[in-house]
Amino acid sequence: MSRIVDLPDTIPIFPLPGALLLPRARLPLNIFEPRYLQMLDDALKTSSRMIGMVQPFERPESADALHSIGCAGRVTQFSETEDGRYMITLAGISRFRIKKEVEGFTPYRRCEVSWEGFEKDRNSHAEQDDTFCRDSFLKTLSRYFDARDLSADWETLQEADDELLVNSLSMLLEFPPEDKQALLEAPSLTTRRETLVTLLEYALRGGGEELIQ
């Protein structure tokens, strides 16, 4: 478990719409913009090797605004391609709350953050969902996949532990950024699973019109 004292007060921010990172999960990223290539270079020079993933607001009048809660990940793998891009993997460490943006001379954004309130994110053991009805959940998921002509390894999904299943689907499935933010901010795995089911069922209704009988 990482203590707050071990976590940096200021971290670089990567505002990428729709990209969700959760604690104890892994997120592959393709870095190619010059400012974020520099962000990665700078992060790799620090002991924490940490980058904060944050959803930007989509409203035109809030083009530069960020959601207040994000998730920090540690760079655990990286490789450089022949054309100068970086392929990296972030391991989710903990959610954080943005306190303020830090002015500076870097081409990327940096924020002062608070780690308080997210202590359970930093536990080494996976969170459990004691009210999880897996059969019902997988039936809803199967309908969603069928409606979008998606395939899945159902045996693996059946055997995955609660957190791995719910968090992986929350990260991988295509939902609008605001819905991804709701999944991130869920206070417990149970709440995240309930939110995920609501999003799946809403998508199946086509926003109010039932697509699948």
From TrEMBL:
Specify the Lon N-terminal domain's residue ranges.
11-204
Record PROSITE patterns:
LON_N (PS51787)
Pfam families reported in the protein's UniProt record: LON_substr_bdg
What SUPFAM superfamilies does UniProt report for this protein, alphabetically?
Answer: PUA domain-like (SSF88697)
User: Any signal peptide, and if so, which residues?
Assistant: none
Listed InterPro entries: Lon_prtase_N, Lon_prtase_N_sf, PUA-like_sf
What is this protein's record name? Lon N-terminal domain-containing protein
